[in-house]
């Protein structure tokens, strides 16, 4: 049993509106799992079901092999997209309160908070009111409160919104460190570059249905078109282009390098290997640039959503 | 996991530590007392004004009855015509002129008395003049008819019918007044409590929505726990505030009467009238009766019923307030949902005031003391008059049943509503939420 969280064909209706239709996902232990999808696809509903905020109409969710039950809230840390804190409460009091709601004792919560406040260098905020903090500062508090009870499963919904690049990086490093310490992370975002950077696994939800999931590298392999980005240098550009076009499917390419090369995207023929292409090219011109085109998470996202 | 105590504690402490709550707690009794003091002072000032009333009595029969008091001087005018007298009163800027025309005979005198003044005279002055003259002329007429006034005075009797129920409970008129007062205070207190602290609960739910903390919280606790914690915490804060008000009010009334007590003793015309009325019945007797009827009240029943109906009624309404708070995004949107809550509440108070006084066990008051949305107020008003225990129990069971239902209903709305942003829901949508 290597999956920390398994959702089995979960469906949820709000009146006539189907928010989730038979969605199944499996989140491997110790992974960072990207939950992706356009706005209104049903991601938040799925996350709320995992947090037992709403109940599924059909299907079930297992955490560590057990059906979800009330005391599982201690094992989950959730940073919602719509988040905030009590504005007129003091930072320290509020963090203590929220930690106690997650089942920590007051002393335990206090010492852990002290550790985190020192770590993020915000110890002097303890007696400030939330309304005196900036949005990014309040987000830091929220991040601490989310991870304080050391849950097995962390759910972050757009964790970087409202952070400047320095703090976003800080939080990113913390997330990676938590993963290394054994936590499993579900990560929902629209920022594909952070998906690229952080996620091992992804699932794509579109119009209430899951339309894609798996290991990010597997999906990329599956979506690659065996196309190579090539930069060539040759005195007779037109001739070489024609020769290549006769043998391969060719698209113009744009990339940056030092020379004013002939730049092409060349799709490999089915029977050929990349070596075949390379040796063919070296025989015709001087090769300066030869890279396999790997689809980005962004490309995969847009392509899959458009095709469905 | 039971987080209820933790939530109650937070709700209570945030309410109690809130600056405006503290200011309101200590300032409003001060404002109330100051207001009362100002009104009392002003009315005293008004009555302290000295007036001179000129009297032109052509009959010479009644002028002897006007005895000067502290604020009113009577100047008797003689041998003047009416016009001359008017002129003189105007010149002297007296308050007014009472003119008793020399009529044909004593029986007509009552129809020819006039009061002239610059402005419309005060009602109390006119009625005090009227009662004085009435008394004198009645006496005169009796004398003329050959009746001995001393005998009449001696034979005057005061009747106070002693009321007793078949079971031997003694009641009296004053008894009813005491009962009404107790029932009225209990019912009105509940009404005020619901409105003030129900609103407070509603605002605190809205605050959680607008500050967007709600989703963080309900990933840790069940919405119904949060709602109940909010209701209970806010009520405890309310009870604290009420208790402080009662203590502060008591202390301040004590201080005020100690300082200004002597001043309150002055004879204003109203008090003169009051005293006249009181003397006829004997004030000691009254106090005694009042004490007696206080002890005749079903006190233990009253206290127990008060606690249960108060809690039941308050929880019933406050859960609805919490549901409204959850359904909307800001306070201005609450209006359309407030009406259906306020209507039965106001109805209860009016039914209580108009029908319970008239007939505490009549059909209307009995029926309304069973309907759960009006029963807390109406039943509390009825109980001092003695309501059979079985009626109280049935009413309470109905109330608790409805309370359980409204909490379920409110929790449903609450659970869905707290996560809904950006649009003002209609009743139709609220109905849909129940099925989510």
From TrEMBL, chain A:
PROSITE patterns: ABC_TRANSPORTER_1, ABC_TRANSPORTER_2
Domain ABC transporter, residue spans: 5-232
UniProt GO molecular function: ATP binding; ATP hydrolysis activity
Descriptive protein name: ABC-2 type transport system ATP-binding protein
SMART domains, alphabetized: AAA
Keyword rRNA processing: no
Entry annotated with the keyword ATP-binding: yes
Pfam families: ABC_tran, DrrA1-3_C
Superkingdom of origin: Bacteria
InterPro entries (UniProt xref): AAA+_ATPase (IPR003593), ABC_transporter-like_ATP-bd (IPR003439), ABC_transporter-like_CS (IPR017871), ABC_transporter_ATP-binding (IPR050763), DrrA1/2-like_C (IPR025302), P-loop_NTPase (IPR027417)
Keyword entries, A-Z: ATP-binding, Nodulation, Nucleotide-binding, Transport
Organism encoding this protein: Ichthyenterobacterium magnum
Record family assignment: Belongs to the ABC transporter superfamily.
From TrEMBL, chain B:
Superkingdom assignment: Bacteria
Annotated InterPro entries: ABC-2_transporter_component, ABC2_TM
Predominant place of localization: membrane
UniProt feature coiled coil, ranges: none
Subcellular location: Cell membrane
Membrane topology classification: Multi-pass membrane protein
GO cellular component: plasma membrane
Pfam families the record matches: ABC2_membrane_3
Descriptive protein name: ABC-2 type transport system permease protein
Organism whose genome encodes this protein: Ichthyenterobacterium magnum
Lineage: Bacteria, Pseudomonadati, Bacteroidota, Flavobacteriia, Flavobacteriales
């Amino acid at each position: 049993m290597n999956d920390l969280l398994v959702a089995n064909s979960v469906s949820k209706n709000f009146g006539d509106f189907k928010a989730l239709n038979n969605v199944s996902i499996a989140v491997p232990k110790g992974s960072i799992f990207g939950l992706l999808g356009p706005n209104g696809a049903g991601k938040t509903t799925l996350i709320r079901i995992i947090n037992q905020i709403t109940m599924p109409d059909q299907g079930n969710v297992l955490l560590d092999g057990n059906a979800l039950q009330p005391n599982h809230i201690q094992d989950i840390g959730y940073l919602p997209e719509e988040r905030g804190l009590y504005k007129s409460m003091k930072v320290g009091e509020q963090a203590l309160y929220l930690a106690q709601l997650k089942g920590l004792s007051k002393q335990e919560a206090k010492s852990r908070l002290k550790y985190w406040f020192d770590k993020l260098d915000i110890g002097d905020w303890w007696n400030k009111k939330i309304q005196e903090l900036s949005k990014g500062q309040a987000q830091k508090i929220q991040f601490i409160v989310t991870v304080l009870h050391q849950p097995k499963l962390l759910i972050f919904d757009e964790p970087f919104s409202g952070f400047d690049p320095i703090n976003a990086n800080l939080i990113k490093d913390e997330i990676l460190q938590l993963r290394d310490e054994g936590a499993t992370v579900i990560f929902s975002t629209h920022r594909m570059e952070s998906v690229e950077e952080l996620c091992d696994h992804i699932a794509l939800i579109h119009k209430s249905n899951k339309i894609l999931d798996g290991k990010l590298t597997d999906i990329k392999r599956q979506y690659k078109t065996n196309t190579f980005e090539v930069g060539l240098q040759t005195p007779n550009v037109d001739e070489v282009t024609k020769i290549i076009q006769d043998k391969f499917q060719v698209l113009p390419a744009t990339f940056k390098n030092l020379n004013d090369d002939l730049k092409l995207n060349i799709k490999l023929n089915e029977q050929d290997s990349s070596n075949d292409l390379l040796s063919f090219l070296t025989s015709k011109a001087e090769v300066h640039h030869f890279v396999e085109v790997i689809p980005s998470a962004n490309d995969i996202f847009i392509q899959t959503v458009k095709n469905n | 996991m039971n987080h209820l105590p933790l939530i109650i504690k937070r709700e209570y402490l945030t309410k109690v530590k809130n600056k405006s709550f503290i200011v309101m707690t200590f300032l409003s009794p001060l404002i109330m007392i100051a207001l009362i003091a100002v009104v009392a002072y002003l009315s005293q000032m008004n009555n302290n004004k000295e007036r001179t009333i000129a009297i032109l009595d052509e009959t010479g029969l009644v002028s002897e009855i006007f005895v000067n008091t502290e604020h009113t001087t009577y100047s008797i005018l003689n041998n003047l015509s009416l016009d001359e007298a008017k002129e003189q009163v105007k010149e002297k800027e007296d308050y007014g002129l009472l003119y008793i025309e020399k009529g044909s005979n004593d029986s007509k005198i009552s129809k020819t008395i006039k009061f002239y003044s610059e402005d419309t005279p005060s009602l109390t002055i006119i009625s005090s003049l009227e009662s004085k003259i009435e008394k004198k002329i009645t006496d005169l007429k009796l004398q003329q008819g050959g009746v001995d006034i001393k005998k009449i005075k001696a034979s005057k009797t005061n009747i106070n019918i002693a009321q007793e129920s078949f079971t031997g409970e003694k009641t009296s008129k004053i008894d009813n007044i005491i009962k009404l007062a107790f029932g009225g205070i209990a019912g009105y207190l509940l009404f005020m409590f619901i409105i003030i602290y129900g609103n407070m609960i509603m605002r605190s739910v809205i605050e959680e929505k607008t500050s967007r903390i709600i989703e963080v919280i309900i990933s840790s606790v069940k919405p119904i726990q949060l709602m109940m914690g909010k209701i209970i915490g806010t009520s405890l804060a309310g009870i604290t505030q009420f208790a402080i008000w009662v203590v502060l009010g008591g202390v301040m009334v004590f201080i005020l009467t100690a300082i200004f007590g002597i001043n309150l003793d002055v004879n204003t015309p109203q008090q003169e009238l009051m005293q006249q009325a009181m003397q006829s019945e004997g004030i000691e007797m009254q106090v005694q009766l009042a004490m007696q009827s206080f002890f005749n009240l079903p006190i233990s029943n009253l206290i127990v019923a008060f606690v249960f109906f108060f809690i039941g009624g308050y929880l019933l309404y406050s859960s609805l307030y919490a549901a409204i708070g959850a359904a909307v995004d800001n306070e201005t949107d609450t209006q359309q949902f407030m009406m259906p809550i306020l209507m039965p509440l106001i109805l209860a108070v009016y039914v209580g005031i108009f029908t319970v006084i008239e007939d505490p066990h009549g059909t209307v008051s009995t029926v309304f003391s069973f309907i759960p949305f009006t029963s807390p107020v109406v039943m509390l008003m009825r109980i001092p008059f003695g309501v059979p225990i079985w009626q109280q129990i049935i009413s309470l069971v109905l109330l608790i049943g409805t309370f359980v239902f409204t909490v379920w209903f409110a929790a449903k709305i609450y659970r869905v509503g707290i996560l809904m942003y950006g649009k003002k829901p209609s009743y139709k949508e609220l109905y849909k939420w129940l099925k989510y």
